[in-house]
Amino acid sequence: MKIKYGDIETDVIWKVPTKEIFESWKRDFFKLEDVELFDVYLVGGFLGKLYGKTEYTEDVDIILTGCDDRKKIENLIYEGTKLGLEKYQIFFDVLWFDNLPPYYDNMNVGEYKTNIYLLSDKWIVDGKVQKQYNNAKQVRKNLWGMYCSFPTYKQKQKIDNGYVYLKPMLINGL
Question: Residue 133, exposed/middle/buried by CB under 10 A (0-12, 13-18, 19+)?
Fold first, then answer.
């Protein structure tokens, strides 16, 4: 499967994320320049998998907070995503949030708004756009920003169906 996400173009044979692959990616990621300037959180379905939930997930969701230097953010998002796709054949969805939304307690805090940065405004698989962020604006070559509300529509649907979000796991130093 040919993937194009920002300037990353690769041909992957998807693997399902495992704890071993996650730990290997994490060791490589924490060797990257300037990573110590950020708090790095694991969120989403793979976090649940680590806690024994049986849900299936094809990616690993990572949120960076802290340092707001766009060049440093761009580098970490790009390198972390590229590392996951090219070396491990898994999508490590690395994003930066200006504030970490309350991802847990079923998000019963009402709507929460935050600025985020991501690698690109579109995810292309085998030449077809699979995901498009129409409200994202390019701020650097491999960095797009947008203002988001949480919980998202998809998250609200999951909550309404009884899904319980886990508290984000800070993975710096683990």
Answer: middle
pLDDT at res. 107: 56
CA 36-39-43 angle, 5° bins: 135
- Report the C-alpha gap between 173 and 15 in whole angstroms: 26
The pTM of the full predicted model, rounded to 2 decimals, is 0.92
Looking at the DSSP bridge assignments, the partners of residue 94 are 62
pLDDT lower than 50: segments of the chain: none
Task: Round to whole Å and give the CA distance between 167 and 110.
Answer: 16
Of the candidates 150, 168, 167, the residue with the CA atom closest to the CA atom of residue 41 = 168
**DSSP secondary-structure letter at 86?**
I
The confidence score (pLDDT) of residue 96 equals: 97
